[in-house]
């Protein structure tokens, strides 16, 4: 996929820092550079006394289509692959530890981390034409970003089971009905509405905003850490295995994956 030397756009206004994923040519898929850029930006926003709220959105027709599968395949096959400084796990650390309100404006397609990031958000606005998907089973891997713990808390066991097990698209209406997102907006109104709400929060004292967030998320810290550890172990066990290899080969060849001929248990 094409390279973008500035994978993240950062803008400040009225104590709101808007972070815009800026790889539209790659549907804002996360390569190592974007993982690092967003991780650093979250740390900087947390430390900046002039920032009260962070708003995260994407350029183009996607919010984020998750991990860059071309780079994932290279990571598996190229022994000389050089990972980023922070990578996926560093980003999840930053999201989990982010101590100010995090508002999402989901402008388009959201796959993988483009959906599971919702578990770490405080308010989620979504375009009426945006769709979400957790494609883990279709990629032959496991959940990520503590989604196996956070999604059931958000939407209930059975809704979360369908989202995580099925690898099927979730419409905007379905996401709103199950409580995965807070508000639906017309596409042209999304950023304005999300920014208005973020700005209203940002007028309040940062110390109080931090205190509210801490009291809400600190009781979950141990369970989030344990869920991440379970998921990471499952992901490591499955990555590069028969199902994952078939999924990546199918992606590279532009065909549907066929898992029916895999060894028993794969």
From TrEMBL:
Coiled coil stretches, renumbered: none
GO molecular function: delta(3)-delta(2)-enoyl-CoA isomerase activity
Keyword Isomerase annotated: yes
CDD domains assigned: crotonase-like (cd06558)
Top-level taxon in the UniProt lineage: Bacteria
Major subcellular location class: other
Location within or outside the cell: Peroxisome
Record key words, sorted: Isomerase, Peroxisome
Protein name, as recorded: Crotonase
Organism, as annotated: Dietzia natronolimnaea
InterPro entries for the chain: ClpP/crotonase-like_dom_sf, ECH/Chromodomain_protein, Enoyl-CoA_hydra/iso
PANTHER family attached to this UniProt entry: ENOYL-COA DELTA ISOMERASE 2, PTHR43684
């Amino acid at each position: 996929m094409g390279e973008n030397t500035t994978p993240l756009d950062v803008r400040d206004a009225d104590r709101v820092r808007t972070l815009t994923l800026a790889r539209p040519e790659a549907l804002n898929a996360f390569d190592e550079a974007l993982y690092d850029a967003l991780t650093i930006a979250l740390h900087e926003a947390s430390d900046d006394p002039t920032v009260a709220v962070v708003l995260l959105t994407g350029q183009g027709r996607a919010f984020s289509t998750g991990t860059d599968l071309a780079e994932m395949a290279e990571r598996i096959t190229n022994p000389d692959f050089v990972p980023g400084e922070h990578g996926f796990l560093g980003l999840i650390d930053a999201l989990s530890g982010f101590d100010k309100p995090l508002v999402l404006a989901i402008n388009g397609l959201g796959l993988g981390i483009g959906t599971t990031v919702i578990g770490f958000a405080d308010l989620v606005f979504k375009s009426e034409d945006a769709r979400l998907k957790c494609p883990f089973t279709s990629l032959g891997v496991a959940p990520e970003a503590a989604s196996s713990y956070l999604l059931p808390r958000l939407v209930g066991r059975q809704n979360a089971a369908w989202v995580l097990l099925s690898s099927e698209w979730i419409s905007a209406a379905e996401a709103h009905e199950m409580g995965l997102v807070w508000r639906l907006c017309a596409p042209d109104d999304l950023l304005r509405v999300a920014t208005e709400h973020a700005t209203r929060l940002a007028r309040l004292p940062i110390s109080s905003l931090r205190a509210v967030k801490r009291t809400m998320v600190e009781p979950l810290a141990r369970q989030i850490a344990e869920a991440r550890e379970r998921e990471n172990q499952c992901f490591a066990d499955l990555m590069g295995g028969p199902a994952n290899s078939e999924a990546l080969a199918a992606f590279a060849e532009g065909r549907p994956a066929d898992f029916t001929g895999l060894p028993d248990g794969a």
